[in-house]
Amino acid sequence: MSDTNPDATPTDTPAPPYGAPPAGYPGAPSSTPTPAPYGAPPAYGAPAQPVGAPQPYGAAPRSSGSPQQPYGAPQQPYGAAPAYYGAYAGPKTNVLAVVSMVASIVGFIWILPFIGSLAGVIMGHISLRQLATSGEKGRGMALAGLIVGYVGLALFVVGAIVFFSFVAYAASQGARYSS
To answer: Where on the tree of life does the source sit, at the highest rank (predicted)?
Structure first.
């Protein structure tokens, strides 16, 4: 048995949209397109604007159709909300690694000569111990804090030895005033 209606007549043209005049009346769409005047550009739609050109007032924003994903972000399923930039930054940086590096630099540039370097070394060792178990980032900063801290401590010790040697030498010479 077939599902076709024997009373229906097949047509080659689809029915006009609701509200459009039927074929044969003025204003009805024709099956043959009217040719464009000579020299006119073909009617393919709105002309493309160059990249960076201002849009006309009230025009829809240009878009490729789908929201851009950050590089390396997992694909969102269809219909899901787009990911915000910076929503997931990966593993966080260990705070003690940052503090170690900053304290060592402060000690190295002689703002807090001994205290800063010593704090940088201590926090660098604690940070390396935490990084071995936590999976955070910051190993390079912790190592930089250790190295700069140890160099700052060595310079402080050498500077202290030179200073006290000079004071001892000056005291052994005595002060001689002649009049």
So the answer is: Bacteria
